[in-house]
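User: two proteins, same treatment. go.

Assistant:
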Amino acid sequence: KEKRRYQQLLDLRNAGEISDLRAQVKFVLIPAQRDPVTGKLLERECSYYADFTYVQDGKTVVEDVKGYRQGQAYNLFVIKRKLMLFRFGIQIKEV
C-alpha cells in the first residue's frame, strides 16, 4: 500500500502538483532526557517517522499510510499523531 502511494505521489510531483517529496522523515517529539549532573541517559528520545512529506499549495503535508486502524501499533501512532499536532502544529494525513 505504501509503495502504491509513493508512486501516486511521484506522479503528482512529476505533474507539478506537489514538490519537495521526501520519505521516512524523522520528527523528534520528545528529546532524550539526561541526568543534569552526570549526563547519563535517563530516557531515549521519542520520535515519529512520517511515511511521506511534501509541499502542496505552499503548505507542508505529512502523510502516514495505514492499512489498519486497530491494535497496539495503531494506538501508539495515535499518541504520536497527537504529539505532532501539539509540538509542531502538524496534522498527519492518514491514507
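Protein 2:
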Amino acid sequence: MDIVVENLTKKYGAQRAVDNISFTVRTGEVLGFLGPNGAGKTTTMKAITTSFAPSSGDVRIGDISVTEKPEDVKTHIGYLPESNPLYTEMPVIDYLYYVAEIHGIPKKDREERILEMVDICGLEGEKHKLISELSKGYRQRVGLAQALIHDPEVLILDEPTTGLDPNQIVEIRELIKRIGREKTVILSSHILAEVEATCDRILIINKGKIVADGTAEELRKSAQGNEILHVGIEGPDKDQLFNALKEIPSIDSVDFLEGKNGYLEIIAAKGHSSRKDVFNLCVKNNWELTAMIPIETKLEDVFRNVTMK
C-alpha cells in the first residue's frame, strides 16, 4: 500500500508543528525520515498512524483516508513509537498473544504467528521472561514484534534501534530491509549512517517543512559545490609541485594536507573537473601519481546545510 500525504498541517495554537507538507511513499520502499528535534517528524508519523487528526490536509493509506476512516487505516499499519509502551508486568509470550487478539488474528493462526515473530525478532531465549526483566534492546525487539504481528502492509518505525548494541542494530537493519521489499516503511532515526544503510530514499523535515527529498546519493550530489580531490604525487619538491598545480586553469585552490606527506587537497574551479589536468601534468613531468581520491559530501553535511538555515 502506498502512503500519500497531501498538504498536511498540524497546529498547536499559533504554532505549526507541520506546515502544509506533501509526499508519497511507494509499496516496497523504505523511507528514511530525518529532522532535528522539534522539526515535525513525530507529529507527521502520528498523523499517518491516526494518533490524532490533522488540522488540515489528509493522509491516505492505499485509498483509505485517515480523516474519514481512521479505524480502517489502523488495520493496515504497524507502529513502533519512540516511547515503545509495553505492559511490563506481562511475560513476552503472553503480551504477544494479547496483541494478536487485539488485532483480530484468528485463534487457529495465533500461535504460529507469535512463534514466527519470536523467531524473526530474536526473542526465543526471552519469550517466557517478564518484559520488566528485559534489557532495553530486547524491549525494543518486543515492540517491533507487536508492530509486525498482524502482518501490516505499512510499517511506521520511530527510532527503532534505540538502545540496541551494534550487533543488534545490524540484525534489525537487515530485518527492516527484508520487510521493506514487500511493505511500505517509514523509518525515523537520528543515526544518519543507519538511514543511509537501510533506506531507499531520505526525506528531511525542518521547522515543519520538507527541505530535502531524494536518495542519499542524490542529496550528496545536490549539496556538492566545487570538486574536491585528495592527491598524492611523488617526484617534485613541494614548491615545484605547488606552483605547477596553481598554474592549471581548472584548479581554484591547492593546499597540503597536515600529517600526510606529499598529499594535497585540490579544489577545482566552479563547474570544472581538474582530474585530467592533474593526471596530464604528472605524465608530462614524469611524476608518480600515487593517489587521486574524490571527496564526497557526507550525509551529515547535507543534513546540517538544510536544517541550519
